[in-house]
Amino acid sequence: MTTTSRRRNSVLVVISLMLALISALGAAIVQTGAGSTEVKDLNWETSSGRSMNALLFVPENATADSPAPAVVVSHGWWNNREMQTANYVELARRGFVVLSIDMYGHGNSDPLPYDQLEVGGTGMYDAVKLIADLPYVDTDRIGVEGHSNGARAANFSVQLDNAADTPLISSVMLVDNEAFYTDDEGAYTNIYGSRDVGLVADQYDEFFFRSYNADGTTATPPREFAGTPSAQSFLHFGADPADLDERATDEYYTQTVDGEDAVRYLTTPAQTHPWGPQSAHTTGKVLDFFDATLDAPVDIAPGSQVWQWKEIFTAIGLIGFGMFLITFTRELLFTRAFRGLRTDVAVPERATGKGLAWFWGGLVVSAAVSALSYVWLSQQAWVTGIVHNAVPNPVPTGSVFFIALWAAINGAAAVVIMALSYLLFGRKAGQRPTDLGLWPGWKRLLQSVGLVAVATSASFMLVFLVDYFFKTDFRFWVIAVKAFPQDKIWYGLFLLPLFLIYFVANSVSINVFNRIRLGSREWVNTAVLALFNSLGPIVLVLLQYITFWVTGDLVPGFGGIYSIWLFPVVVILAFTAVVSRKIYRETNNPYIAGILNAVVVSIVSVSNSLVMTY
Hints:
By secondary structure, this protein is of the alpha/beta class.
């Protein structure tokens, strides 16, 4: 790195810190309503005997003299409390007290025992009991809202509320999960009683809102849900809809139940399951529903939404975090402890003829292996048993285990492809992988581990500082870097060996065997490698959703959750390719970036997923 390059890198470190600060300030201004809403990070031992974490939003209109309505909101399975950003920002703006929870097993709440999914409504009903004790909450106007398995938690909570001496829940909004339609004998029923209930049923939901034939095949896809007996019974307050009029979506239906007026509401937006928490349309429906059933203290139209600005600011922070990870690592190469890792790197040669054929052929084969191995792995019963916690196992985070195992398979495949490429072509062409850092020696390898430890610690210290002072993190949709409790470090270390196999092999492949000149600038080669890193997942996602859009159902044998998990993977694989190249160019050492990527991805993944214990 020349003096000019070093100066430019130092400037980029400062810019990355400025982006993080802009992100934190901007996101905090949005979620506090420029100071009109107090945000508290709560952690308490619930009546179920375990620790729960949540963000509490208290608008200035909520006082002991003038209690406000309240809503407990919940994310879905394998997510955390910040996935409810749209709802908690907008509900708080409208004067609601809002509690956004980490369900048990998620985020910063206690792990979830596999046989206690319903305890405390997976935490939601424990949160309802907490919010009902707050002096500035109107206990006659408490609602619950959940997305996906957060909606299941809301259903669990309704059942617990039915058995309580003093019911607390008066309004329920279920987003992207089924309501209760029938009892244990299959008869239509109304477990919600006189509560107001709304249901969001996406037309392209990967999991729910289908009806089935006797042989188990799909009778109606999600986009036809509104006309099914289940939907019509729901809108008719649990009555058998056979001889009743057909009710429409986006209409509020009222009926007297147990001497009280109750509401039922159904909307069916043309969107997918994971888009629900990011949908302005769905957010508007949630706001309108709670305004209609709990009477919002502040009159703001449902379509007037500002939460997107928080999403923009946290995305800026995500960019800043990525920049800091790269530039700070490079900055450490000028310190006494790590300057021995800095070395000159040979300019890549322009590949021609057979060299180009091996280059493109290897990339195509790697992308094909990536896609095919992912689908194959999703069909293995022993793997899905662990992933979905269907069998006792020592793996605490099944979803991350699946991605890590798939990554390791592709890392092993990359080693085979590199070996074949060298033996069948590279050796004859005069390639010398050792000159390109294939083995830097034990001393440099240990130094590399130390460098990664310092760079990772500094990068996550930035995340914790933002969390402590501003109660925000760095994220965009399903890609999130957030603060975490110390147990997540151990869960990350548990899966780190699998991630190391992939990311080290991938970094060696990118830098030792595939660093060639394409065009006049090296960034072209980097961009191509980043694209092919993600190409397999991109193809799978496109195949899944084009099929879903055309046929109304998913690709046979390829479960919806597995395509959803690929959304962040596409970005992560492309980004880590860039990290590998940026650091290698200053060190001639592919192991630094390989280890760094593995550690960061492992920790980020486990801190944003479900932890279940046996």
